[in-house]
Design a protein that fits this description.
5-stranded parallel beta sheet, Rossmann fold, globular, 7-stranded parallel beta sheet, 14 helices, 13% strand, 399 residues, single chain, 2 domains, alpha/beta
Length: 399
C-alpha cells in the first residue's frame, strides 16, 4: 500500500512520524512523509520518501499573537499539502495539525484516511482542552470548552479550506460541515500517547483510540558521540536540561540561569541547545545538539524539559524523574499529567523560572525516592506498549 503521512510543525511534531513511517515501511508498505523542508535529512535517515512542505515550522515565531501565527501558518499549509499529495497515495495518515485540510484532500483523491494524533484534542468531560489551561471546568464545562475550541479551529481553517477545495475542483463545503461529516462516520483517530499518562476518556465516541506512543526513528547502529560518552563516564549521572523548539532567542539568559541552578543543586548537566540556542561552559556542563532521547535519557539522573508530548514520553520511558517547565500550547497539560502520575515535580511555568526555583526542583527530583520508583513503574508499562504496531494493524484493516 502507498501511504502518505502528513505532518507539520516543530521537530516534536514530525520526528515521531518518521519513526511510525519506518515501522510501516518495515511492514511492507511504500511510505512517504510530507513535512516542512527543514526536516528533509531526518526523513531521509528513516528511509522514507520525502515530500517537502514550504512552510515555516516556527510558524512565524518572531512576533504576533499565537492565534495570528497559527493563521499565517494555516494560510500557507493548504497549497503545500496539495502539492505533496499530487503524486498520489492509497491512504493518508493525518495529524491533528494536517487533518482539517487533509480531509479535503482525501475527498478529492477518493482515498481513505486515518487520524494519527499526538494529543487528545477531541472534547471530553474528563479534562479541559489540552491548549488553554489545566483547570477543570467540570464535566459539562470541559466538554463545552472542547467544542468551542473545535469551532475556533474550524474558523481558523475556513479560508484555507475554501481555497483548497477550489484548487481541487470540489464543490463548496463549510469547514464545520466537513468536521461533522467525519464525526458522523466515526472517523478513526489513533492517539500516539500512553494510556498510562492519559487513559482513553470514557465519553469519547467510537473510533477514537489510545494506542501507545510511536517513537522517533533511530538507526539500529546509532551510538552517542564520543565527547558525550566521555562526559557521561567522567562522573555521576548528570541532569538533562532542554526546551526543544521553545524559547527561541532566549539562550543566553537561560544559559546563565541553568548554570547557576546546576551549581546550586551541586550536579552535573547536559544542555540541549534547541531553538533557544541554550549553551554554557564548565567542567561539569556539556552542551549538545539534537541527540536521540532514547539513547541519552537513560543515562541521566533527571530531565528538565518543556513538557512537550514527545519529550514527556521519552522521560517516562527512560524511568527518570522529570522537572517540567512548560512554555505554551499543550505543554502545561502534559506537565500536569506527569505531576499527577507522580513521576515529575510540580511544574514551574517558564516565565516564573529562576535559578533558585530550578535548583530546588532538581534537588527534589533527585532526593525523593518515590519519584524515581513511580518513574520506573511507568517505564515498565510503556515498555509493554507498541503504538506503531497498533497503527500498522489499523492500516491493514482500512478498506
Amino acid at each position: 500500500m502507498k501511504i502518505l503521512v502528513m505532518a507539520a510543525g516543530s521537530h516534536g511534531d514530525v520526528a515521531p512520524f518518521a519513526g511510525l513511517g519506518a515501522h510501516l515501511r518495515a511492514a511492507g508498505h511504500e511510505v512517504a512523509l510530507a513535512a516542512p523542508e527543514t526536516f528533509g535529512g531526518l526523513v531521509a535517515e528513516s528511509g522514507l520518501a520525502f515530500r517537502p512542505l514550504s512552510v515555516d515550522p516556527g510558524g512565524g515565531a518572531g512576533g504576533g499573537s499565537l492565534l495570528g501565527r497559527a493563521a499565517a501558518f494555516v494560510d500557507r499549509l493548504g497549497d503545500g499539502l496539495a502539492d505533496a499529495a499530487a503524486p498520489g497515495a492509497d491512504l493518508l495518515l493525518l495529524t491533528a495539525t494536517t487533518a482539517p485540510l487533509g480531509w479535503h484532500l482525501a475527498e478529492a483523491m477518493n482515498v481513505p484516511s486515518l487520524g494519527v494524533y499526538l494529543q487528545p484534542t477531541l472534547p471530553t468531560g474528563e479534562f479541559p482542552p489540552v491548549v488553554g489551561g489545566t483547570r477543570s471546568l467540570g464535566r459539562w464545562g470541559n466538554r463545552a470548552a472542547g467544542a468551542v475550541g473545535q469551532r475556533v479551529v474550524d474558523r481558523l481553517h475556513t479560508d484555507a479550506a475554501r481555497r483548497l477545495r477550489t484548487r481541487l475542483g470540489l464543490p463548496p463545503l463549510a469547514q464545520s460541515a466537513q468536521r461533522r461529516a467525519r464525526e458522523r462516520e466515526n472517523w478513526r483517530v489513533l492517539h500516539g500517547f500512553s494510556p498510562t499518562l492519559v487513559p482513553r476518556p470514557a465519553d469519547w465516541r467510537s473510533g477514537l483510540e489510545v494506542v501507545g506512543t510511536w517513537w522517533p526513528y533511530v538507526a539500529p547502529d546509532y551510538r552517542l558521540p564520543r565527547e558525550v560518552e566521555d562526559f557521561l563516564q567522567a562522573g555521576p549521572a548528570p541532569v538533562f536540561i532542554g526546551f526543544g523548539s521553545m524559547a527561541g532567542g532566549d539562550g543566553e539568559r537561560l544559559g546563565v540561569l541553568v548554570t547557576e541552578a546546576l551549581r546550586r543543586a551541586g550536579v552535573r548537566g547536559v544542555l540541549q541547545a534547541g531553538w533557544a540556542g541554550l549553551a554554557a561552559d564548565g567542567d561539569d556542563i556539556l552542551t549538545v545538539g539534537e541527540l536521540p532521547h532514547a539513547h541519552l535519557f537513560p543515562r541521566m539522573a533527571a530531565a528538565v524539559h518543556h513538557a512537550g508530548a514527545g519529550t514527556s514520553a521519552a522521560a517516562l520511558r527512560a524511568g527518570i524523574p522529570g522537572i517540567p517547565v512548560p512554555v505554551m500550547a499543550d505543554q502545561p497539560f502534559w506537565a500536569a499529567r506527569l505531576a499527577r502520575l507522580g513521576t515529575a515535580t510540580a511544574p514551574v511555568p517558564f516565565r516564573q523560572l529562576t535559578a533558585q526555583r530550578l535548583a530546588e526542583q532538581i534537588r527534589r527530583a533527585l532526593e525523593d525516592p518515590a519519584l524515581r520508583t513511580r518513574a520506573r513503574t511507568a517505564a515498565d508499562r510503556l515498555g509493554r506498549e507498541n503504538g506503531a504496531a497498533r497503527v500498522a494493524e489499523a492500516v491493514e484493516a482500512t478498506p
